[in-house]
Structure formats: C-alpha cells, structure tokens
Design a protein that fits this description.
heterodimer; A: five-stranded mixed beta sheet; four-stranded parallel beta sheet; 17 helices; globular; B: alpha+beta; two-stranded antiparallel sheet
C-alpha cells in the first residue's frame, strides 16, 4: 500500500523493527521542544485513542504547568474490535518510544510510563525489547506497567489511578490528569498511535502530515480480509472496506469508531473520508479507527443489543446512571432483539439514550448512548418492526463474527 | 461572601480561568457522579434545575444557575448527604 509510514519497512512476519533498522529507515527526529509543539499545532494532529482531542493543546496544557511532569503512553487497547495499537507496538515499537521521548522533552517530563494492556503479550514483549535497545540514560526514565483487562482500563483517569494506586477505575474530575496525574504531577496521557504520529511529524514536518499523513484503522466484520491497515488521511470509508475485501451490495451499515462510535448506513458511509475533522463536520467520529461492516443479511437491532450488553457489563459500577441507565438500555435492546419487547421499550430507548450523556465520571455512558442513538436512526425500520413484534428472520450474529 | 464561598466548594488552582473584572459570576452545578448515591435532596430543593431519572439519579438542565436561584442552589449543595454536589464557576452541567 502506498503512503505507508508506520508500517512500511520490514514485513510484519519479520516481527518488530530493530532500533538500528528504525534509524536507518527514518533517521533521527529533527524537531523537538517548543518547535515540535508548534509543528503539531499546524499539523492538526488529533489523539488516536478515541476522544480525538488536539494533541498540541494537550501538550501545551501540561507544558504550562510548574514542577516535574509525567508522560503516560497509553497502550491499553480495551476496545474489542480494535487491534491497531497492539499491531503498532508489536511491529514498530521504536516509533512509539520516540514519540514518548519527544513528548517528555517537549512538556518537561523526566518520567515516562508505558501502560500496556495485560492481554497484549506480543506488543509488551516488543516494547520491552525495544526499550532495552535504547541508551541507558533514556531507558532509566521509563516504567512499564501492565493494564488490567477491561474496557474502561484505558480511560485516562483510570490509567493514572492504576499507576498511583493499582486501581484501574476512572476518578471524578477535576482534577484532570494534566492538572494532577501520576504522583499528583501534571501528566500527559497520550495514545501510542498518537505518539508514533508525533515521531513521524518530528522528522517529516507538519506539511507532510497534512498532505501525506496516514492513520491506522482496524477493518473487521463482513469483509474478506479483516485486519489492521495504514491508510492516507481522508481515504473514503468505502475504499478502506473494499481494500479489505468488502463489497458494498453485501453491506448494510458500518460501525465507525468502535463500540463507542456510531452506525452509519452503507450508502451514506461509502464516500465519507476517514479523517477526524471531516467526520466531525459530518457529525460523526473517527473514534479509535475501527470500521466494522454489518452484512445485509444481519439484524442491526440484534447487533446493537450485543454491543450494548457488552458495554453494560463493562460498566465499572461506580456511577448510578451508568449502572442503572445503561443497564436498562441494554435490557430493553435485548428484549427488542429477542422479539419480546415491553410496550414502550422503543420510546424509552430514545429517552434514556438522550438522558445518559454527561452523567458519569468518565465518558463510558456517553459512548454507549451515542452508539444506541445512531442505531435508532440507521435501523429505524427494524426497530419499529421489532417493537411491533413482527419477528425478524435476519442473521443474529454479532458484528465482528466474520464474513457472511 | 464568607458563607457562600465555603459552600461553593474547593476549586483547584488553575481549574477555572480567571473571570474578567466586572462580569457577573456564572455558577453551574457540578455532580460528583461517583459519590452521588441518588438521595434526591438536590431535586427536592432545586426542582427548577434538577430532576431525577427513574432510578433516583439527578439530571440537571444545562447552563448556569440563574441568579435568583443561587440561594436555593447553595442550600441544595449543603444538603447533599454524599457531598456530591458543588457549585463551580464554569459553564458545566455534568
């Protein structure tokens, strides 16, 4: 694939790129410190963990603080449909380390925490090996911690909480990590793909990123070759699906952004560009770069019920609206999917999903509510049929069960 | 402001931007959703801004608390048995 920067170089089967090969391929970063932050601002780079916050603004808010600061490289990929972070760490660990070191020097941090999902065995091993190749004075700044399994473990306050007290549960804000994070110090929490993008911008410049920048996506569901791909920013969603062996007539909707993203009808989705700003303008979200194809033969209500049930289970049960509100949403969706709804389940779903956002310590309920609202729009007709107990002859497989 | 500033709750340095001189102080309700246990005093004391969902957890109308309701809002803040409600000097409705 042309325009490949993260994943160009040695083939995936050769394992992780060594430090020497990495430097031979890309050279050393030329932009650092304040100049790098300015380049990041001009590049328009947004975080790739899911929230899409502008990277330069995050860095500035930490750099402006006084006293020792910390960088937390977030490699806890809890989203079930996504694997781009672990693929990146497994194959290009030095890009992530470069980004973390550049971040530390730009925001004034001595300490860097690598926070890697406990289940990402190969990724963690590759990161540790890569770390061992770095010079000792750089290596000494790093701590590697393994994040507990769980959807919410990668949430930024949960990550900070885990480093501080061994509890990977979100905390109430304020303070946000940039105010008081690891050890009470201002902390930059940044997804590993965002850091790898920084490592490229520090070499190739912000103009390169605007014109030729790429992103990692995970394409899954009803496609011939599911997997992680590097695509140029702005690639139409349909093209990404076709490259993975998906066919438009066989697909009714795409789940874009992951479980906290949203459904988009295939017709509308096909020409939408995979670009955080363009999707935002269209009222959508790139999320963590998941594109999951729902086959035309599948039931959108059942697929949504499956995801909502998972998200309700993954609530860490700290906040009432998430425990009860999200729980009720999942239960109503389950009843609708099974064809035995209570009389007003559909109306309740509309109301509950509108009432939920902004009512948790973290954004877990917001993400779930957004997903449900998108389903109510995209699968509107199916929902009404299910509410009327007309039955459903469609395939009830979960969205990522594979090609139809 | 002795009594009221106590009820306004602790804000961390730098958490809210300095307000331009002369502008009226806008306060909004901030819930600590982890502490909140759904006791419902806030909706009882400030029904103009807060209602409860089916499970007793508060839903606030967005936007700042109007000037004429500020005393009621302060009462709601001090009545919360879980110390989960605060008034903050920021346009938030979480």
């Amino acid at each position: 694939m042309s325009g490949s920067w993260f994943l160009s170089g040695p083939a995936p089967r050769e394992g992780a790129e060594t430090g020497r090969a990495h430097i031979q391929r890309l050279g050393a970063p030329s932009l650092t410190g304040a100049a790098l932050i300015e380049a990041l601002e001009r590049s328009g780079l947004r975080g790739r963990g899911g929230a899409g916050f502008p990277v330069s603004r995050k860095w500035r808010s930490v750099a402006e603080r006084r006293g020792p600061r910390v960088v937390l490289a977030n490699g806890a990929e809890g989203e079930p449909l996504s694997s781009k972070d672990r693929v990146l760490m497994r194959h290009r660990p030095h890009l992530v380390l470069d980004g973390a070191v550049l971040a530390a020097s730009a925001v004034g941090a001595r300490q860097v925490v690598l926070y890697i999902g406990r289940e990402h065995f190969d990724a963690a091993e590759a990161m540790l090996r890569a770390l061992a190749e770095r010079p000792p004075r750089e290596r000494r700044r790093f701590r590697v911690l393994r994040a507990p399994v769980g959807y919410v473990s990668g949430e930024e306050t949960a990550a900070v909480h885990f480093v501080n007290r061994g509890i990977a549960l979100p905390t109430s804000t304020p303070p946000r990590p940039f105010e008081a994070g690891v050890g009470g110090r201002p902390t930059l929490v940044q997804n590993v793909e965002s850091l790898a993008s920084v490592a490229l911008i520090a070499r190739l410049g912000d103009g390169w990123f605007r014109d030729h920048g790429t992103l990692l996506i995970t394409v899954t569901g009803s496609v011939g070759r599911p997997g992680v791909f590097e695509v140029p920013l702005g690639t139409p969603l349909g093209e990404a699906v076709e490259r993975s062996g998906g066919r438009s007539h066989a697909i009714q909707a795409l789940l874009v952004g992951g479980y906290f993203g949203g459904w988009i009808g295939a017709g509308e989705a096909w020409n939408l560009p995979l670009h955080p700003d363009r999707l935002r303008e269209a009222g959508r979200s790139l999320g963590c770069g998941v594109v999951a194809a729902l086959p035309a033969s599948a039931c959108g209500v059942a697929a949504t019920a499956g995801i909502a049930g998972y998200l309700a289970e993954q609530s860490v049960r700290q906040c009432g609206p998430c425990v009860f509100g999200l729980g009720a949403i999942a239960a109503a969706l389950g009843r609708l999917a099974d064809g035995w709804p209570e009389p007003h389940d559909l109306v309740r779903l509309e109301r509950w999903s509108a009432e939920l956002p902004g009512r948790g310590a973290c954004r877990h309920p917001d993400g779930a509510a957004g997903l449900v609202r998108s389903a109510l729009t995209v699968f509107d007709e199916d929902f009404r049929l299910h509410q009327a107990r007309r039955g459903c002859m469609m395939d009830r497989r979960p969205v990522a069960a594979g090609a139809a | 402001m002795g009594e009221s500033s106590e009820l306004v709750g602790r804000t961390r340095p730098g958490a809210t931007p300095p307000r331009p001189r002369g502008a009226p102080p806008g306060f909004s309700l901030a819930f600590d959703r982890i502490r909140c246990d759904g006791r419902g005093y806030c909706a009882e004391l400030l029904p103009e801004k807060v209602r409860l969902d089916e499970w007793g957890y508060p839903i606030a109308t967005p936007g700042p608390v109007p000037q004429h309701l500020l005393d009621h809002a302060r009462r709601a803040v001090s009545a919360c048995p879980m110390l989960a409600l605060r008034l903050v000097e920021a346009p938030s409705s979480r």
